[in-house]
Write a structure and sequence with these properties.
GO terms for molecular function: sequence-specific DNA binding. It comes from Rhodovulum adriaticum. This protein has 4 domains: 122 residues, 2-Layer Sandwich (Beta-Lactamase); 99 residues, PAS domain (Beta-Lactamase, 2-Layer Sandwich); 109 residues, Beta-Lactamase (2-Layer Sandwich); 75 residues, Arc Repressor Mutant, subunit A, CATH 1.10.10. Helix content is 39%, strand content 23%. The protein is built from 16 helices and 15 strands. The strands form 3 sheets. A 5-stranded antiparallel β-sheet has the order 2-1-5-4-3. It has a 5-stranded antiparallel β-sheet with strand order 7-6-10-9-8. Helix 14 crosses helix 15. The longest helix has 37 residues. The chain is elongated and about 140 Å long. It starts with 6 loop residues before the first helix and ends in an 11-residue tail after the last helix. The N terminus and C terminus are likely disordered.
């Protein structure tokens, strides 16, 4: 064949092809081939042997092709059959969707050719469009996902902009490596005395008096990564305004950033600031252990004195644990402290023992104060080491003069066994009275404190005439 194409075809140089070979050629040239009559009856079905996606379609033979097409493909077939019956030569292929079984259809692009001696039979050579359709569906889904992400990004960006414009707090976003301002809200720009366009991209250290870039970024990084948030006192360069800077480090899209919140220091608040500084100094350096917990007794914060009493290496070792884990009587003592503090607002001088990380026990006196006026209520425990006081105290249980006198009167009139029994009753009564008083008449907690069952406690209360108390917690 020459480059001129059809000359040899027209001259009859095409060799004759045997019928059995012609079928194989047609089946291999197309993915799916159909031979139909002009009325639409399927006469033969040829499936490409290398294309296994169609399966066996021999059952199509003898059917009307309209019965194996979807509803939307039938008008396109009718139009093409009408063209072929009128002798028109179709220029373009037709995409038809075949329906096979429940919920399974597949698209095929067909070209139509007249064959047969009278050209009353049509050969439909089809190309499977499912790979293209699947690729189109993937592209559509990817486009829809991008649209959803874009809309979500626009929504978050709008929320962020509204928040920065409406908030009264001044804050800056600073790059941790570059030390330059990434973004700032209008309040921060007004506080620093600079326009937002001039502030974005500028070095944040230059906005504060007497600060060098390297030293300032080291200070900012240390403040952002510290366990406890502590402000840094600064003075703005342009407005000469004293401010406190609170730093928070975070990572966004792989970039490390620092959120800098600026609080102006008012002149009238100087006395209150000194009080806050004094309270913080007492908390961090005081000799008494101070512990902040929530209403369930879970430790929120503790000072170094508490860490020393419990032999804890650092704050992270105790934060999030229950204070009852460090009390010898555990949840019994903690319940007494928490319930009395939340009920009356405070509890004073509760004597117990503190157990350290390695089992060492220390006698302590605990006072509790309930802070209910805060947005998140908390309980403050002040724990004092009382182990030295026990050395000077007399051992044993303090017995009242009346009880001692009643015991002494038994000498000479009763045996030693009876005197000891009487003394035991006196001590037992005093212990029960003390437990009931410490638990504010909460008899469930008193029974747990004494290691008694509730029934045994009620029996002893009735025995010593202590049952008739008001406000009993049954």
């Amino acid at each position: 064949m020459t480059s001129r194409g059809t000359k040899y075809w027209n001259s009859g140089a095409i060799p004759l092809v045997a019928p059995e070979m012609l079928g194989e050629i047609i089946a291999t040239a197309a993915d799916l081939s159909l031979v139909i009559s002009l009325e639409g009856k399927v006469l033969s079905v040829l499936v490409n042997p290398t294309h296994r996606a169609f399966g066996q379609l021999d059952h199509w033979e003898g059917l009307n092709i309209r019965d194996i097409l979807t509803e939307d493909s039938r008008p396109k077939l009718e139009a093409r059959l009408r063209q072929m019956s009128e002798g028109e030569a179709p220029a373009k292929a037709v995409e038809l969707n075949h329906a096979e079984g429940e919920g399974w259809d597949f698209p095929v692009r067909y070209s139509f050719h007249r064959i047969g001696p009278d050209e009353n039979v049509l050969l439909m050579l089809g190309r499977d469009l499912r790979p293209i359709a699947e690729m189109q569906m993937q592209l559509i889904e990817a486009q829809l996902a991008l649209e959803r992400d874009y809309e979500s990004q626009r929504e978050y960006d709008t929320r962020y902009r509204v928040l920065t414009e409406a908030t009264r707090d001044a804050f800056l976003f600073v790059g941790a490596k570059s030390g330059r301002v990434v973004d700032a809200n209008p309040v921060a720009c007004e506080l620093l005395g600079v326009a937002r366009n001039d502030l974005i991209g500028a070095s944040v250290a230059h906005e504060f008096e007497g600060r060098r870039r390297v030293e300032f970024m080291e200070m900012l990084t240390q403040a952002a990564t510290a366990d406890e948030t502590r402000p840094t006192e600064l003075e703005t360069r342009r407005t000469r305004q004293a401010v406190r800077l609170y730093a928070t480090a975070f990572r966004a899209a792989g970039e490390r950033l620092v959120l800098c919140r600026l609080d102006p220091v008012a002149d009238g608040a100087q006395a209150g600031d000194e009080m806050n500084e004094s309270l913080q100094a007492m908390y961090h350096h005081g000799v008494d252990a101070i512990v902040f917990t929530d209403r369930d007794g879970v430790i929120l914060s503790a000072n170094d004195s508490f860490l020393g009493l419990t032999d804890a290496p650092q704050l992270a070792a105790v934060k999030g644990r229950s204070l009852g884990d460090y009390l010898v009587r555990g949840s019994v003592d903690l319940r007494v402290l928490v319930e009395n503090a939340t009920r009356t607002g405070q509890m004073r001088m509760f004597a117990t023992k503190l157990s350290g990380e390695y089992g060492a026990q220390v006698s302590v006196e605990i006072s509790a104060t309930y802070l209910a006026d805060q947005s998140t209520p908390a309980i403050v425990f002040v724990i004092r080491d009382a182990s030295r006081m026990e050395v000077v105290r007399k051992p044993g249980v303090a017995v009242s003069d009346d009880a001692m006198r009643s015991v002494m009167e038994l000498v000479g009139s009763a045996t030693l066994k009876d005197i000891v029994a009487e003394t035991t009753d006196v001590v037992e009564k005093m212990c029960i009275e003390t437990a009931v008083e410490l638990t504010r008449n909460n008899r469930v907690a008193a029974a747990e404190m004494l290691g008694l069952s509730r029934q045994s406690l009620y029996v002893k209360l009735r025995k010593y005439g202590l049952l008739a108390r008001d406000g009993a917690d049954t």
